Amino acid sequence: MSPLQIAKECLANQSKHVRLNAFISRASQASILARASAAQDVAPGHWPPHGQLIAIKDNICTTDFPTTAASGTLKNFTSPYDATVVKLLRDAGAIIAGKTNMDEFGMGSHSIHSHFGAVRHEEEEGTVLSAGGSSGGSAVAVSSGQCTAALGTDTGGSVRLPAAYTSIVGFKPSYGLLSRWGVIAYANSLDTVGIIAEDVETTKHLFMTLNKYDSQDPTSLPPSTRARLGATSGFNSDPRHSQRPLRIGIPLEYNISDLHPDVKATWKRALDLLELEGHTLHPVSLPNTRHALSAYYILAPAEASSNLAKYDGVRYGTRADGPDGTPTSVLFAQTRGANLGLEVQRRILLGAFSLSAQAIDNYFIQAQKIRRLVQQDFDRVFATPNPLLSTPDTHAEDEGVDVIISPTAPTPSPLLSTVSSQPPTSAYKNDVFTVPASLAGLPAINIPIMVPQGDKQRPASPSYHSKYSWRTLGVQIIGQYGTDDLVLEVAEALKEYDEAGFNDGEKVREVEEDA
């Protein structure tokens, strides 16, 4: 399809799916069509992102749209500059479709904590499901065809979880590869710009476009370190043409008691497909995984408490109407209470407590120690040494694993009405499989995998294939730091195995009987 045809189709889907509330602000139809028409004149070979509609999560700065972070305190803010990742997209010829809805300041797992209302993910049957969070708007915009791809941010799984819930691809690169300059911070040591797309190929092209050193971002990986990444893999990164079979790690601690049967079946099918293609499966132990979620929900709120202190209505943010402060409160109490959502207030308070003099040793310092142990667990099981360590551990090639395969979320997407009525902290456990890779800064990707269902009479829907009653759920691929290309290649290969196995009757029966 030409850029103009794609633009027209995306605009039609935007009009059709307004009720999903995926966008906070959008480009006008006239401007999108004009840019798409101009992109037609460029010689082929520039796709993507040239001429493609790319949506941007609303905590990434843009000059031509407001940047609100889905918060009342920034509802009137328009950035005077583009974030580096947005500038790179524009330079590559992408058309910015608009800014997507999200959990306020990236704090949430279902995209319901937004000043502009919850994001909705709907099946054809009319069921309204959670879109996941915090990049739920970006995920729904892609899954409903309102744009070609989208940028999100991933702090503890905020790209991978909504991608799993909406049956698309969500990629979190290694920390420091994609610039954070112009991204409104939630937790600086964890925030990573991520890519959401319908397929792995588009994700790869966007990653190549955005994977640049940025001197304006102090956390951007310098060129000298980038030159070492991927050089120690020891084999062709494409498993379809590899010099040896890939060693696939199966993390034992991820087989939790709360794991939904359909999720477990999807995980098993992904492993079976890889084994059928000649790759080998190896159980691995990541013992500190059980502490990762607790550590994350101490570290991230602590950093958020510091980052959001500036939104007081004096230096930054919208000021509340009327006099601010009372004889018994600080000057900006009313402004922060009126313009920051309840989930944001909750995490600021939690972070302020964990950084207080009486709690910092027992909470924040202990969480930092757990974070280091989680990283060491991953370094121990991967065959490729961590290139960031001055004296990396070395593994014999046949001892460590190349990638780890796990579920992305413990359950399928729940009903929106259910998560809206639950206690706020009940959503935190949805990040149990995504947080460990975030704490270690590792590349991780969600891809949708099909799994057969017992009920053959269930009607078809976006997450069910029309020929069979096969459900599509998310599987996560995690690699060692800097092996982003390998993670993407494994994801692309696994999707090919998945589609081939689905279309090949003999293989379908074999996998279905196994499951």
Describe the structure.
GO terms for molecular function: ATP binding; glutaminyl-tRNA synthase (glutamine-hydrolyzing) activity; transferase activity. It catalyses: L-glutamyl-tRNA(Gln) + L-glutamine + ATP + H2O = L-glutaminyl-tRNA(Gln) + L-glutamate + ADP + phosphate + H(+). With 515 residues, this protein is of the alpha/beta class. The protein contains 16 helices and 13 strands. It has helices spanning 3-16, 29-39, 84-91, 136-143, 160-165, 200-210, 223-226, 261-276, 289-307, 333-339, 342-354, 361-381, 416-421, 435-440, 484-503, 505-514; strands at residues 23-26, 53-57, 95-100, 121-122, 128-129, 149-154, 169-172, 192-197, 247-251, 280-284, 403-407, 444-452, 470-479. The strands form two sheets. Strands 1-3-2-6-8-7-12-13-11-9-10 form an eleven-stranded mixed sheet, with helices on both faces. Strands 4-5 form a two-stranded antiparallel ribbon. A hairpin with a 5-residue loop joins β4 and β5. The longest helix has 21 residues, at 361-381. It is globular. The relative contact order is 0.13. Residues 232-237, 455-468 and 505-509 have low confidence and may be disordered.
